[in-house]
Design brief:
Order of helices and strands: HEHEEHEHEHEHEHEEHEHEHEHHEEHE
Strand order of the largest sheet: 2-3-1-4-5-6
Number of strands: 15
Largest sheet: 6 strands, mixed
Structural class: alpha/beta
Shape: globular
Radius of gyration: 25 Å
Distance between the termini: 25 Å
Number of helices: 13
Helix content: 25-40%
Length: 468
């Protein structure tokens, strides 16, 4: 970069022209703020108020939010992620279980939690159960007493001290009253970067996930050598999941308990929702995910959906095709065709063909887990990375866009787990070219079993007119 701030050909690849640490800080995982509470207390309205835009669907009908949805947000220059959650259903069977599940998700996946209570209705038994659960989380919990539209309603908010979550924050999510004061308090306790997405201290964390009845609990029992997980058709068998420490291949692994992910097809939609919540929770709490697929049956849309969850979460991945004892030669031929057609974008994921029932090839899981985690943890030195990109671009330049050919000015790996690369460019890179770069990165550096993220930062010349 020249003295006047413009790019020159001679310095395009001068390492140090960019702030590597600043790029890493920019892409550090932002902290997560979960918004929880009963249906129709105003969670989604509060999420929209925090975002400053209408994103979450809001209706007067309880239970509109049927899944956990994350949104990028900022407040006073602070970046964070807001998670809107479905409410625990007061008329559902096993209310205490539903409360525990939602609170568990918030505790596992969030750095701070806002519990929303309808101040007009007051604290219900479901609110009290959730409050007790959240008190034990060790996470900062903020009590939002919603629907306090006037000063006269603040007496209703004061009554919520009884929940034991500290001072209630009287707010009106609908009108914005008190929301800024609530966020000021949240920002004081919210970390600069996510702590739930960080560190690998202790045994590596593994989640077994997949569609219902694919054999997750059976595999966990096979690996543990005993009945760690209850195998049952009834959704929600596990009320309070406990992770399992299992010794495999001379190491101790922490398997994130996904018992209870099973559900009967045709059960109430509420069970489908909670199965999805537990799947998200297991993935978020893990470092590497083993996605179990029933090898004896055709690949389904639900298999694809689970795989998408893992990729979006940025977790290391191992594909385990279970029930291999039921797979004959004809089925193997069809399965290979299905994999080539429907999983073409996941050729980088290690594949293991197993049978949890008979124990066939289960021992191959550990090498696959270690391979995926090693790729997930990989960091490439900046100098080597820039040399690689310089050679690739010289051989295959980016396609011309708008009459100009964009240049990659500098590259850095801003994060690992998953490997995340930032390319500073003079113009936009087409999606197809980014996929080409990802393929070349994998050919050169491996990354077997780990997703790769490539972020492009277009840098305009200083003094150039800004686009309106």
């Amino acid at each position: 970069m020249t003295e006047d701030g413009t790019w020159s050909d001679e310095t395009d690849w001068e390492i140090g022209s960019f702030d590597d640490e600043a790029a890493e800080e920019e892409l550090a995982p932002p902290p997560v703020l979960a918004v929880v509470g009963r249906p129709n207390v105003g969670k989604s309205t509060l999420v929209n108020r925090i975002l400053g835009r209408r994103e979450a669907v809001v209706q007067d009908i309880p239970g509109v939010t049927r899944d956990r949805v994350s949104y990028d947000a900022s407040y006073l220059g602070r970046r964070f992620v807001v998670q809107d959650t479905g409410g625990w259903e007061p008329d559902a069977k096993g209310l205490q279980q539903k409360v525990a599940e939602q609170a568990s998700v918030a505790m596992q996946t969030a750095d701070a939690i806002i519990m929303v209570v309808d101040a007009v209705v007051g604290a219900t038994s479901a609110d009290e159960a959730a409050a007790k659960r959240l008190q034990r989380s060790g996470k900062p919990v903020f009590l939002a007493a919603n629907k306090v539209d006037t000063e006269r309603g603040e007496a209703d908010a004061a009554a919520l001290w009884s929940l034991g979550l500290g001072e209630p924050h009287p707010i009106s999510a609908m009108h914005g009253r008190g929301v800024a004061d609530l966020l000021d308090s949240v920002m004081e306790k919210l970390p600069e970067a996510s702590e739930v997405r960080g560190g690998t201290g202790g045994p590596r964390r593994v989640a077994l996930v997949g569609k219902p009845n694919v054999g997750k609990s059976s595999l966990l029992n096979r690996l543990a050598g005993d009945e760690r997980s209850v195998v049952h058709d009834v959704a929600g068998t596990t009320v309070d999941p406990v992770d399992s420490l299992i010794d495999l291949g001379g190491k101790t692994w922490r398997f994130v308990d996904t018992a209870g992910l099973r559900r009967k097809v045709g059960q109430a939609s509420g069970h489908e929702f909670y199965a999805s919540v537990r799947t998200h929770s297991a993935i978020d709490a893990a470092e590497v995910v083993v996605v179990l697929i029933d090898g004896s049956l055709p690949l389904t849309e639900q298999d694809q959906r689970v795989l998408s969850m893992v990729i979006e979460a940025g977790r290391a991945l191992v594909l385990a095709f279970n029930k291999w004892d039921l797979v004959d030669e004809d089925r193997r031929y069809l399965l290979d065709k299905e994999i080539d057609r429907e999983l073409a974008q996941l050729q980088w994921a290690p594949r293991v063909n197993i049978s949890a029932k008979t124990g066939r090839a289960v021992q191959k899981l550990v090498p696959a887990l270690e391979t995926s985690l090693a790729s997930w943890d990989t960091r490439i030195p900046t100098g080597r990375l820039n040399t690689f990109f310089k050679e690739i671009v010289a051989a295959t330049p980016p396609p011309v866009r708008g009459g100009k050919q964009p240049r990659i000015l500098f590259a850095t790996q801003a994060a690992s787990r998953p490997p995340t690369f930032v390319l500073f460019t003079s113009g936009f890179l087409e999606a197809g070219y980014r996929r080409f770069l990802e393929r070349k990165l994998r050919e050169t550096f491996g990354f077997e079993g780990s997703p790769i993220r490539i972020n492009v930062r277009v840098r305009e010349k200083r003094g150039a007119p800004k686009k309106r």
